[in-house]
Amino acid sequence: AQKVTQAQTEISVVEKEDVTLDCVYETRDTTYYLFWYKQPPSGELVFLIRRNSFDEQNEISGRYSWNFQKSTSSFNFTITASQVVDSAVYFCALSEPFGNEKLTFGTGTRLTIIP
Amino acid sequence: GAVVSQHPSRVICKSGTSVKIECRSLDFQATTMFWYRQFPKQSLMLMATSNEGSKATYEQGVEKDKFLINHASLTLSTLTVTSAHPEDSSFYICSARMGVDTEAFFGQGTRLTVV
Prior knowledge:
The complex is a heterodimer of chains A (about 120) and B (about 120).
Chain A: E1 3-5, E2 10-14, E3 19-21, E4 24-26, E5 33-39, E6 46-52, E7 59-61, E8 64-69, E9 74-79, E10 88-95, E11 103-105, E12 109-114
Parallel strand pairs in A: 2-12
Antiparallel strand pairs in A: 1-4, 3-9, 5-6, 5-10, 7-8, 8-9, 10-11, 10-12
Chain B: E1 4-7, E2 10-13, E3 19-25, E4 32-38, E5 44-51, E6 57-58, E7 67-73, E8 76-81, E9 90-97, E10 105-106, E11 110-114
Parallel strand pairs in B: 2-11
Antiparallel strand pairs in B: 1-3, 3-8, 4-5, 4-9, 5-6, 7-8, 9-10, 9-11
């Protein structure tokens, strides 16, 4: 069975600080995708990244970066120089093997950026 | 990314009535659509997977007769909550994908309140 753990329920940081959101996953599959989504107060899910299990390269997109460590089953997300607009709930998710996009979501981390 | 539109965004209905929620892929043909449910401050739980032209596959614990899913065309899936009760009040969100091994895009979600 698949499982995604986001141990940090809520995080608050002052604007311009860096913040890392943790994600640890469990799966017996050798092929899978990992995702991060942002859910602002309006409710929609904003896609941030999709990473396949064969690609362990870290990725940077503007102020966002992701660290995929297969050895520790972690896929952490860092926001650099945080801004108030980053305040949201962030979900990490894991898909079943390639060919099926059913997602197992973590419980989410509520991030609050304090002005 | 591709656009998935969900309608309505909010609905309030009386207990015992049925409510239909639409999920449309606006700029692509969706072979598969997924329906998720999210209780307040909780994670998203997959309810069912629907493939165009075939019966939906429901997750364990989800009542098929209560949550009717229809995927009659490649751009539209509907979720009907039948004989709604206050405990069905939740945020329902759909996602759609073009084909096997492609990412899924989420709609804006529908907040259902049953009074």
